[in-house]
Design goal:
41% of the residues lie in helices and 16% in strands. By secondary structure, the protein is of the alpha/beta class.
């Protein structure tokens, strides 16, 4: 069986649907998982969906992905703007990566407009809500198929 796409979610995303719905929408993280898995099935790929509020857990999962995953979708949330450790792990993983943000980070506080994660990503999707996860699956499925053919 093909290796899954790891979908890694950072701090406070466990509060989706409850925390600032005017910014992040009303879908909860379980809704995001279901949408992402459904889109992956359309492409014949699988998803390994995870969330942690702890930076070290995210680093560990990215390192695990190096051998266990075909690609990574990451919404590093607040760590996007602060974590060189996540960037280093993504670069060491040597996998296709798409960075996702529910909100448009460029319409928010100036500190949110800088992403360390982007330096390790093939692409960035922001401002499209949960649809961004589905688009990330589409993009990575194309990358995986072209790489494997």
């Amino acid at each position: 069986m093909a290796k899954p796409i790891f979908v890694l979610n950072g701090p406070n995303l466990n509060l989706l649907g409850k925390r600032q719905p005017e910014i992040y929408g009303t879908a909860n993280l379980e809704d995001v998982r279901r949408l992402t898995e459904a889109r992956a099935r359309e492409h014949g790929v699988s998803i390994d969906f995870r969330q942690s509020n702890h930076e070290g857990s995210l680093v560990d999962w990215i390192q695990e992905a190096r051998e266990a995953a075909s690609a990574i979708i990451i919404n590093a949330a607040g760590y996007t703007h602060t974590s060189v450790a996540l960037l280093d792990a993504l670069q060491a993983a040597e996998l296709p990566v798409v960075e996702v943000h529910l909100s448009n980070i460029f319409r928010r506080d100036s500190f949110r407009q800088h992403s360390y994660i982007s330096l390790g990503a093939n692409g960035v999707i922001c401002g499209l809500g949960v649809k961004g996860y589905e688009l990330a699956v589409d993009a990575l499925a194309d990358i995986i198929k072209s790489r494997d053919s």
